[in-house]
Amino acid sequence: MSPPVTAPARDRLRIAIQKSGRLADPARSLLAACGLSWRESRDRLFCFGETLPIDLLLVRDDDIPGLIADGVCDLGVVGRNVLTEAGLARSGGGAPVFREWRSLGFGGCRLALAVPDAWDWQGAQQLAGKRIATSYPALLRQWLDTQGIDANVVLLSGSVEIAPRLGQADAICDLVSSGATLVANQLKAVETLLESEAVLAGPVGEFDPVRAGLTDLLMRRMDGALRVRNSKLLMFQATRGLLPTLLPMLPDAEEPTVMQIDGEDRLALQALCHGALTWQRLEELKRAGARGLMVLPIEGMLA
Ligand code: ATP
Ligand code: ZN
User: Fold this and answer.
1) Class of CATH domain 109-195
2) What H or E segment, with its residue span, contains residue 232?
3) In this structure, which CATH number among 3.40.50.720, 3.30.70.120, 3.30.300.30, 1.20.1250.20 belongs to the domain 232-297?
């Protein structure tokens, strides 16, 4: 028996992304790298898909899990922090309705517990009976439960980091990337509750055949786009005898294509490298005997 179809049949796919904010531009670039383009509407809330029947809805990131759960949107690009929080808050013991389909490699941050610099941190038991300010109450409560700690969760929708200075809370649980905001507020991160990044979120259930076909096509392109995003094609020449030295120096490379160019010995190689091809690495390869080194960007890949 197949799982239930989560939304009424529709012949276009609708993807929710953040209207403005940290995830807005990278989400659009990723979808554009999958070959999608759109006609913008006047209010810039809805973008009609031109190359494929895949439309965009531009919304606040916090609304994305609910839009997927309600079947208003099919997929969404949202932080794992927001998706997990919404999942915990909605589930109430019921079956989940959305899930993470892919991690996207941008928007990296962590949900951390931070306490005033002056605290001598010895462990979660120090939080017993304390007030912790957060915009992620469900994630925080879950973590406190696993630690067996009874603390008071103070729900704030923004400016969580100043809550201790204002006397609203003793500690905070908030997103951290560089840590500069914490330092500016005389706080220090002491525990990580969740490692987060942007994810492609979608329903747990299945789509009707038309949207299932569109999501299959999109996922194949997205996997290709994600795979090549930080990859480069390295081309160079070398003599056959140098291969045992040179090949291990290629950063996270796939099996290279090797072509013989003159006589037995001289070879032209091309290798897809997923690791960083820094100037230093190119200079090392040259010193080891590689010649005519050339690094090319990759536009797309279909395995
Ligand atoms: P919206 O108006 O859409 O509600 P927002 O203020 O909630 O916007 P942003 O600050 O743009 O959202 O953050 C969006 C997401 O970016 C976060 O949910 C998180 O996944 C990610 N992110 C990455 N680094 C950070 C950071 N240092 N602080 C906050 N969010 C971060
Ligand atoms: Zn938000």
Assistant:
1) alpha beta
2) strand 232-239
3) 3.30.70.120
Instruction: Render pLDDT for 41-57 as a digit per residue (tens, 0 to 9).
Output: 767 899 999 999 999 99
- What number of other Cβ atoms are within 10 A of residue 228's Cβ? 18
Q: List the one residue out of 100, 61, 66, 99 whose CA is nearest residue 82.
A: 61
Q: Where are the domains of the chain?
A: 13-107+198-227, 109-195, 232-297
Domains 109-195 and 232-297 share a fold: no
Q: Which of 175, 289, 166 is nearest to 239 (CA)?
A: 289
Residue nearest to atom 12 of ligand 1 (CA): 21
Ligand 2 centroid, distance to 42 Cα (angstroms) = 23
CA of 22 to the centre of ligand 1 (A): 6
Instruction: Give the pLDDT band of residue 94 (cuts 50, 70, 90).
Output: confident
Q: Which of 59, 109, 157, 181 to mutate to test the pocket of ligand 1 (most atoms within 8 A of CB)?
A: 109
100-128 confidence digits (pLDDT tens) = 999 999 999 999 999 999 999 999 999 99
Superfamily of domain 13-107+198-227 in the CATH hierarchy: Periplasmic binding protein-like II (3.40.190.10)
pTM of this structure: 0.85
Distance from CA of residue 106 to its chain's centroid?
5
Q: Return the residue whose CA atom lies nearest to atom 3 of ligand 1.
A: 60
